[in-house]
Backbone:
């Protein structure tokens, strides 16, 4: 933590690889609501990439 901020390291994955990881994570959640911040923390992906993929998957409300 730096000055009250948390530093998060983000992995660089291709769009398709990130999409596959997100899809698998959502499936493992077993119908539970999955939030973008959860995906970012667990999969170490950027919020912008996650948001774009979630829209493609039809998972954004």
Residues:
């Amino acid at each position: 933590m730096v000055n009250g901020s948390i530093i998060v390291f983000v992995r660089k994955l291709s769009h398709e690889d990130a999409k596959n990881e997100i899809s698998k994570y959502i499936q493992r959640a077993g119908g539970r609501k999955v939030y973008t911040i959860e995906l970012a923390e667990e999969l170490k992906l950027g919020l912008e990439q996650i948001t774009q993929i979630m829209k493609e998957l039809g998972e954004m409300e």
Remarks:
- The chain has three helices and no strands.
